[in-house]
Amino acid sequence: MIDPDEREQAALRAALKNMAELMTEIGWSTRFQDLGEAQALALATAAVDGFQEAMAKSAPRHDPEVPF
């Protein structure tokens, strides 16, 4: 991502919160190279899911009266 706007930066911060929760479970002293495949995938998933959820929540809402 090049030059993220304010909304994207906020979504990145939300993704970091998801990742931090997972790192608390894994252990903060664990080096990335020492993660198992499942742990690394879980971190990637936490980052992507957190970003996408935050972007969806902050998206402009469409008028519910418009049927499309």
- The helix count comes to 2
Helix content: 55-70%
Task: Write down the Rg.
Answer: 16 Å
Tell me the span between the first and last alpha carbons: 30 Å
Poorly predicted runs of 5 or more residues? none
Helices and strands: which structural class?
A: mainly alpha
Number of strands: 0
Biggest β-sheet description: none
| Shape estimate | elongated
Series of H and E elements? HH
Q: Return the average pLDDT rounded to an integer.
A: 91
Percentage of residues in DSSP E strands: under 5%
Can you put this structure into words, describing what you see?
This protein is mainly α and 68 residues long. The protein has helices at residues 6-26, 37-57. The model has no long low-confidence stretch (mean pLDDT 91).
Short précis:
With 68 residues, the chain is mainly α. The protein has helices at residues 6-26, 37-57.
Write the layout of secondary structure elements.
Blueprint: H1 6-26, H2 37-57
Helix pairs in contact: 1-2
Characteristics:
mainly alpha; 62% helix
